[in-house]
Specification:
The chain is α/β, with parallel strands linked by helices. The chain contains 5 helices and 5 strands.
């Protein structure tokens, strides 16, 4: 069985996330998703709309996802790859080159993001639509 892993916050789940997960699953038989915890998101300077448990439930309902694990720190990727006997590490191409150091222990693939959508764009669009009261 060929195992694949990817990581992310997956907040405000949208079709770009689904595209990423679908393409990641195409590289193997079993897809593990490392889901950033709320505490790790704070370290990264992010605040998710949905908490970790809510985001986990959403991910677990997607047919491409076989297993969800908590991502608690940057260094965890190397540990997870060894722990779960990962064959392929997949991440969006906005991280191009950042995880090449993992090539010694597994295949590393950077895949294109869906360009017209992101959680950041959704948040900006929603904020622009909400009238401000002063």
């Amino acid at each position: 069985m060929k195992k694949v892993i990817t990581y992310g916050t997956f907040d405000l789940l949208h079709y770009g996330h689904i595209n990423l997960l679908k393409r990641a699953k195409e590289f193997g038989d079993f897809l593990i998703v490392g889901l950033s915890t709320d505490e790790f998101n704070l370290i990264k300077g992010k605040k998710a709309y949905f908490n970790y448990e809510q985001r986990k439930v959403l991910l677990e309902s997607i047919k491409y996802v076989d297993y969800v694990i908590p991502e608690t720190c940057w260094e965890q990727k190397m540990i997870d790859i060894k722990k779960y006997n990962i064959d392929v590490f997949v991440i969006g191409d906005d991280w191009e080159g950042k995880f090449d150091f993992l090539k010694d222990i597994c295949e590393v693939i950077y895949i294109p993001r869906t360009p017209e959508i992101s959680t950041t764009k959704i948040k900006l669009d929603l904020n622009a639509r909400i009238p401000r009261k002063f």
